[in-house]
Design the sequence.
């Protein structure tokens, strides 16, 4: 019996998500399966992958053949890296503790990269929605405009100082005419 690790399609039309399953190669795509290993949702950004790494590794070591997409998922999640390290342990190139330490270090760095990418996507989405909210952005006043405003204010003060004696003389004339009457 040939055993495959493959995707089983779920979800509605135009919105798929997949279960990663171990199944007999003769069973239909969405039919009978041996074990459910996890899920894969390509509709999110970045794609959401939940998988039982230990169970997937056990099935790979038993000889289960993954499809191309599942192979890429397992490589992304580090199952193939673990298989590579265990081959080195079997050959005596390293100890099991060293291999598991390297594997855990790799998993931690990969999870950090994925989390950073998810945060970046989340921030970009929030920025996009902020731009759509309809709130106008405040336009900064250019330094040139501030200089022009200062020059106009100085010119107005000078004009007031120049016309001040004329205004005072005119005011005295009107008061003297009013008192003469």
Sequence:
């Amino acid at each position: 019996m040939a055993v495959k690790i493959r995707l089983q399609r779920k979800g509605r039309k135009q919105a798929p998500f997949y279960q990663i399953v171990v199944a007999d190669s003769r069973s239909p795509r969405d039919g009978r399966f041996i074990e459910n290993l996890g899920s894969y949702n390509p509709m999110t950004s970045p794609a959401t992958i939940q998988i039982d790494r230990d169970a997937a590794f056990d099935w790979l070591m038993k000889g289960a053949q993954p499809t191309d997409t599942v192979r890429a998922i397992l490589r992304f999640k580090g199952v193939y890296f673990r298989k590579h390290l265990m081959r080195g342990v079997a050959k005596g190139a390293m100890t099991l503790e060293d291999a598991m330490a390297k594997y855990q270090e790799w998993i931690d760095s990969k999870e950090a990269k994925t989390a950073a990418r998810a945060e970046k996507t989340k921030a970009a989405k929030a920025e996009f929605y902020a731009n759509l909210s309809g709130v106008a952005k405040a336009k900064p006043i250019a330094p040139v405009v501030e200089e022009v405003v200062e020059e106009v204010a100085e010119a107005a003060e000078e004009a007031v100082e120049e016309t001040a004696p004329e205004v005072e003389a005119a005011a005295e004339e009107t008061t003297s005419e009013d008192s003469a009457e």
Q: What stands out?
A: The chain has a mean pLDDT of 85.
